[in-house]
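Record type: ASSEMBLY
Status: queued
Input:
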Amino acid sequence: MNGAQAMIRTLVDCGVDVCFMNPGTSEMHFVHALDSVPEMRGVLALFEGVATGAADGYARMADRPAAVLLHLGPGLGNGLANLHNARRAKVPVVNVVGDHATYHAKYDAPLQSDILSIARGVSSWVRTVASSETIARDTADAVAASYGAPGQVATLIVPADTCWLDSPGPVGPSPVSGAGTVPSDRIDDIAAVLRGGEPAGLLVGGTAMRTGALHDAARVGMATGAKVLSETFPTRAERGAGTPAVERLAYLAEFAQMQLQGLRHLVLVDAAHPASFFAYPDKASDLVAEGCQVHVLSAPDEDAAGALAALAAALDAPSDPPVIPAGRPARPTGELNAESMANALGALLPEGAVVADEGNTTGLFAQGATAGCPPHDWLTLTGGAIGFGLPTATGAAVAVPGRKVICLEADGSAMYTAQSLWTQVREGLDVTTIILNNGSYAVLNMELSRVGAGDPGPRALSMLDIPGLDFVALAASMGVPATRATTAEEFTVQLEAAIAVDGPALVEAVVPRTI
Amino acid sequence: MNGAQAMIRTLVDCGVDVCFMNPGTSEMHFVHALDSVPEMRGVLALFEGVATGAADGYARMADRPAAVLLHLGPGLGNGLANLHNARRAKVPVVNVVGDHATYHAKYDAPLQSDILSIARGVSSWVRTVASSETIARDTADAVAASYGAPGQVATLIVPADTCWLDSPGPVGPSPVSGAGTVPSDRIDDIAAVLRGGEPAGLLVGGTAMRTGALHDAARVGMATGAKVLSETFPTRAERGAGTPAVERLAYLAEFAQMQLQGLRHLVLVDAAHPASFFAYPDKASDLVAEGCQVHVLSAPDEDAAGALAALAAALDAPSDPPVIPAGRPARPTGELNAESMANALGALLPEGAVVADEGNTTGLFAQGATAGCPPHDWLTLTGGAIGFGLPTATGAAVAVPGRKVICLEADGSAMYTAQSLWTQVREGLDVTTIILNNGSYAVLNMELSRVGAGDPGPRALSMLDIPGLDFVALAASMGVPATRATTAEEFTVQLEAAIAVDGPALVEAVVPRTI
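Status: finished
Output:
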């Protein structure tokens, strides 16, 4: 058994049985070994950002890591943006980067590069395999490291000769550290603060965005009057009819500050201290009001759901907080715009759907319009690196094959990782993609006016215009059936038809700019 | 004048007047400032790899740097692969990466990332702008650093507040170190070696691939009997009828070893020591034969053309080495394959054309078939990171607007940075793209058989198959007129028509796998 076979067998034995890959010559032994470990599913991507984003989406829905296989430093570079998003999502990813054979590095061949330096920018754990003797244990350690807690990108750099030389064979799982239990005195302290009666809020994020934890957060809110907010960009929010109502912290700093206004206490539950997404001249970066004390109930490496349950118990919270009633918007008519697009989605979203949301400005109304739809999951752009939606939808579809995945994708962002559509066709994935085409980097039009540089001139504005993209043709180039809608009625009918397809389909929604 | 205006004005004053960009919020002051410095041409890309590859192509043809504008760590990641190629091409690139405002970093906002670590992987020079007071000098220093010698990627990390705060204004150029003169005793030593009569070769690369230097290399070969070889992947080779014949070192190690066989002396002229592109089990990485002495005439930071001229003079070399006679292949007929495709290109290549060659296996015959065409330039994949051809062609077309750019692009590689086509349309660039569609990562089929893993199984082979891509539709999605050819006659007629278009056009050549 060579090192590559031992690595793949170890991955499978550690519960990692999907590998999103874009291999090159130095990974050919890994590719060759796929036939000797049939439990490993290799999913080919035409671009590394598709592979890494798919691993992110997979982990969000499977709650366990996929592997990624990349080719040297440049391949890692191409995958970096979506690894950044995965890092911010705190999901486990086993990121395997092939390298030249150990003895070849000294020749500084054309593809020689500083993989370690590049990997450190996105990985909490990085190790270079030293030999085919250790490759199996290194692999098991990478899987364990990826689990964290919290989940993280664990990068294993694999020189080609450690794959092709003989190995002693696979090993079993390495120990996973797991999430820590929040100490009871912290629970008691925060319970006392909330009982004190001063205006308070819970800011819930991360692993606390699942129904059970949200339910406990809502109970705490009910018992104490604390406002329950969610972070702006959750990794995976369970939502829909029957789930507790949670107010999302706004993206725009001014609005977020209004939501936090007047609070004397803010309790963070696996959520970051509220800060502005970007800095703006003469605007605050820290969004917490002066005089508001910030308490951490649960840090990312701790058990947030357990902490919320304990807090609710400590407060003798009622067991049945109000939940969102079932309800859908009517099928929209008239102009196709951000609002009618959202209403069509709300009218049609299937039960159990997974929404990968990179709708940006045109997606603004989508969460509101779907709040009362049957239970579903919502995945958001945790790290702000665009090109996330299509790959994440692809990986999510691999993780939960029985469920419909809907990708809400802005035109500008779609153009980063559109190669995802090809993988969807190849794997027969059940993804409905909605492209929101307003011919613009609309969010940047807003940002350009917000950064205080004064009125922009024509040359600046032209840098934010991206006209002339035909997404029906783009979909056709990769074999995805697609249609284009220019009215709300057309869009609703076309979306219904696309959802009815058991496999990839795409609807291009031609919309005006929201902003 | 704010920092951004001072930066752009300084770039222009230092001779950098093109910026390939894919900006985000933290770069909005830079974008805004474009209207106050009209000499700066902003060229928008839909993906960062297009911007960085375009800067590479621009520098190869303009012999001076363009600027690149990227958005934080993820944007840099997306641009990394083509920066790697530019680094290997030893061309100057001024790589501007926007960052959060200095005071915002501590909030660890979603897009916060370790830009420095990522940048170090591809940049010889990295600096973070400390304030708007220093931004102009930092910019001038980055331009100077990019020139080297040799040319390099100089990365300037620019916190947003250093752009929006007041600055003292632009500064003039910083001193450029320039290429060193090769000492005369080294010239004399190498002249003595070559006069010695033992079998010798010159391996010419880098800046020595221009006509004047190649002419002197050929003179040296004529005077001494030394074999004149060129490196496998030159940055920019001037070639065609009337240029001296130079034998290209083969990509495949076995062939390269045969070319170097029997040499007792190998003289490197701005070329790397011959090493295998990848390592293979039981094959040599070092391709130089045992007993062959390697001499460096000119290192990358030295004046290679001057050294060759001095060497030719020291050897009293004849002034008129043989040159390649004018001649084109006949228009091909019959099956469309790598060879007939190359012959069609040879039959039609316009004088002064620039060929960006990422033809990979199907491009194998292209150099041979065009050797006797009117003088032209040939740009190759210096760093081995695929996704190079379309962006490099785009940048080359910006650099030399009067000349036809031909992009030879393999299907797999095309899918990395196909967004280039949109920039070509937007800027009206005169690029003819030939997509070589064999539905396969054909080079990996070859590599898979070469790595000694034994016969591949069906699952391994399926990872190298990329069927179902329709490049005519892909071109249409971005507004490029395109046709598909399946016979040599069709291809020749379509290529002729595409070349006749004054602007972007694309021909998809459906070809069988070469290997």
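Annotation: The two ends of chain B are 59 Å apart (CA to CA).
Annotation: Chain B has 20 helices and 18 strands.
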